[in-house]
Amino acid sequence: MDAFYASVELLRYPQLRGLPVVIGGAATEQDRARSLAHAGRLHEIPLAAFPRLASYAGRGVITTATYPARAFGIGSAMGMMKAARLCPQALVLPVDFAEYRRWSRRFKEVVVSIAPVMEDRGVDEVYIDLSALPEAQIEGGRVLARRLQQRILEATGLGCSIGVAPNKLIAKMASEFEKPNGIAIVQPEDLQTRIWPLACRKIHGVGPKTDARLQGHGIRTIGELAARPRAWLLAHFGAAHGAWLHDAAWGRDERPVVTESEPVSMSRETTFERDLHAVRDRALLGQIFTELCEQVAQDLRKDGYLGRTIGIKLRYEDFKIVTRDHTIAEPTQDAAQIRRIAGLCLRRAPLDKRLRLLGVRVGSLLKGEEARLRTNLGRNPHMASLF
DNA sequence: TCTGGGGTCCTAGGACCC
DNA sequence: TCTGGGGTCCTAGGACCC
Q: Is the CB of A63 under 7 A from strand B?
């Protein structure tokens, strides 16, 4: 989906179309008061009532920027303060995940109604396996892609870009070619002309660290990566990573489109408005800690999961991250239990530096029924020995 | 004026078991 | 004094993605 969060916001605030708008940060009292005052007619809120980046004071990053804002050099993951320098007049809206999830469900319903083999890749992205659809054979899939775009637009008013290719790796890259509202068809024979000229960073899975290492070896483009002997990549990047890099550069990817999956972990974390000290801000920290545990427990119960591995995450003022976790015998979704175990984890972490972020995670998840079955087996000595 | 929140997967060492 | 080879589970950190 193109500029998804921002595009969803423009649906309820059409008066912001064409303007530089950024989404980021949490809702403030002012935001809530404004929405409340105009409940049911958000489109009537005057422009002057929206806060500008110039007056934004909090911590945080841009999650999405409208295309007019991107023209000023603003992009995702950019700090708010830096963005404010680039375009102080840009309007700021708080992130509203609940709303984005609602629109996410709607566009995915449209996709599944046309092409049922869909892999969910988050709130604004999917992979679709078109190979069983006869219509995909027409014009290399362009007709089908256009129909998907049109139906999504009709149902939601939201635009998207589609890449059609022989596998997920190339399709993902192709989806970026014609943004926004574009369609790109990439055939196997297009590898050298359309993929090899791209920077290695464009490969889904090559991040800043790998890119820097590649550049250290003088490898900047995917074509330069493909030119390295496979054995050389294995020697310099390890057996698994090296082989993967070589395959990716040659456009090889056999991963299937996965339509079902279970969550592995659930977590809640928060960055404080100011860095907190474990001793001096003990009371406040304890309160936030308990709230995080309660939120995770609520998330678990809402989706019917229990977990055995309870963990914490700390980010210090110097941005260093530390995690501690502990696995218990019986899976839980109980806030007090999670709080107790997480408290033990916290005691094992260094607490001399000031803290910027605190997080609570529950992993090794089991669905409710599995958890009950597991517990019963464990409690019954006859069953336990049988299994 | 730095740098969110919620995830997945991989690696590597140690404990422990057969 | 010199000490196997699997396998699984747990913990911690790190890379990467949306």
A: yes
Question: Is the CATH number of domain A99-191 3.30.70.270?
Answer: yes
The CA–C1' separation of A324 and C11, in angstroms, is 8
**pLDDT, average across residues A41-54:** 94
* Active-site annotation holds for A178: no
Q: Which chain A residues in 231-290 sit with Cβ < 7 A of strand B?
A: 238, 240-241, 263-271
Say whether A124 counts as a known binding-site residue. yes
Does residue A153 carry a pLDDT above 80?
yes
Distance between CA atoms of residues A241 and A230, nearest Å = 11
pTM: 0.93
Q: Contact at 8 Å (CB) between A21 and A9?
A: yes
The whole-number Å distance from A95's CA to B2's C1' is: 20
Identify the CATH number of the domain defined by range A265-375: 3.30.1490.100
CATH of domain A197-249: 1.10.150.20
Q: State percent of chain A over pLDDT 70.
A: 96
For range A361-371, the mean pLDDT = 91
CB A319 within 8 A of CB A356: yes
Distance of A349 CA from C2 C1′ (whole Å): 38
Residue A204: nearest nucleotide (C-alpha to C1'): C17
What pLDDT, in 10s, does the model give residues A311-322?
999 999 999 999
Round to the nearest angstrom and report the end-to-end CA distance of chain A.
47
A4-95 and A197-249, same CATH topology: no
CATH code: domain A4-95 is 3.40.1170.60
Asked if residue A202 keeps its beta carbon closer than 7 A to nucleic acid strand C, the reply is no
Decide: CB of A326 under 7 A of nucleic strand C. Answer: yes
Distance CA A26, CA A28 (A): 6
Whether the pLDDT of residue A382 is over 70: the answer is no
Q: Where do the structural domains in chain A lie, given as residue ranges? A: 4-95, 99-191, 197-249, 265-375
Which pLDDT tens digit goes with each residue over A248-267?
999 999 999 999 999 999 99
Residues A278, A268: Cα–Cα separation, whole Å: 19
User: Among residues A99, A125, A135, A294, which one is catalytic?
Assistant: A125
